[in-house]
Amino acid sequence: MMHPGPRNAITDVAGLLVGQAQDDRIKTGVSLVVGDAPFVAGVHVMGGAPGTRETDLLAPDKSVQTVDALVLSGGSAFGLDAASGVADALRAQGRGFAVGDQRVPIVPGAILFDLINGGDKDWPENPYKTLGAQALAAASQDVATGSVGAGTGALIADLKGGLGTASTRIGPFTIGALVAVNALGRVTVGDGPEFWAAPFEIGGEFGNRGMARNFDPTAMPPLKGGDARNTTIAIIATDAGLTQAQATRLATAAHDGMARAIYPSHTPMDGDLVFAAATGAVPIQDPMADLTLLCQAGALTLARAIARGVFAATPAPGDPLPTYTARFGA
Q: Which residues of 153-166 are buried (b: 16+ CB within 10 A; e: fewer)?
């Protein structure tokens, strides 16, 4: 049986912390996962418009098998600079891949598009490197959700998006998700308050609105209008002892959770991406059975995190879209 960890957050995976920073005037921010030690990571991209840094080195055949942090950022291509701020700060801490007498922190990142969300984007200098360093400095076990970090300026088709997290305990393993929801599609069904992720909700974690009835499952919902640029970016983490190839499979399977929570997902204008992280604290006993279990739990955990992120969004001046609670109530 699956149940949440004590925080219902990705930091229920021991050894991982989350750092977040934001600029409410710009309506953007950065969220990251950093480990007590380097961890195995994989990645899978299913959206048609991704923006990434250092994802090629996560392939199982590459020389470096572990990373120091994973970064999710707003800012479109500008936001890729957030990982530079994280790398600089980690290097100052003496962390990174050893090359002679030098340390090179390995910090893959992904971005979402939040440049047309009512914030003031007329910055004189790219702010994301500073935001990345601030996010690392703020790393802790506490994970705020909603309009924070990389979810600060996120929008979906008809509502504000947000930053979500969730966790699951299954067998000897813990698995957690962190996600910035900025999708072209919707997370609710039709005109009602029910979430697509409702079948997987645990303990009323996103309002206990139940499952939708009397809707046409074949009808295409209205999508985000105007100059739509999107992306839902996520990190799935576990304490299981996965190889890089197995972590890549976990990231791939977790996209099912995105498809269960966002309709439609993985469109040509979404850069949908999932990183996977594995600390290796709990050994794998049966590679086939254990990985199958983790893949299923990872997808369900991500679906829950997506709904939680949108449910927790809060209003701010100049928002072009309402929050979930403004439209449907708390």
A: bbbbbbbbbbbbbb
Interatomic CA distance for residues 229 and 29, integer angstroms: 17
Ramachandran region, residue 100 (left: φ > 0; alpha: ψ -120 to 50; beta: rest): left
pLDDT, one tens digit per residue, over 122-133 is: 999 999 999 999
Residue 4: inside a domain: no
DSSP string spanning 147-162? SSGGGTT-B-SSSB-E
How does pLDDT run across 65-120, given as a tens digit for each residue? 899 999 999 999 999 999 999 999 999 999 998 888 899 999 999 999 999 999 99
Specify the CATH number for the domain of residue 31. Answer: 3.60.70.12
For 160, the domain range is: 10-328
Per the structure block, which two tokens stand in for 52? 């990434």
Q: How far is CA 132 from the centre of its chain?
A: 15
Looking at the domain assignment, is residue 1 inside a domain?
A: no
How confident is the model over 281-310, as pLDDT tens digits? Answer: 999 999 999 999 999 999 999 999 999 999
Question: Which of helix, strand or coil describes residue 246?
Answer: helix
Residue 5 lies inside a defined structural domain of this protein: no
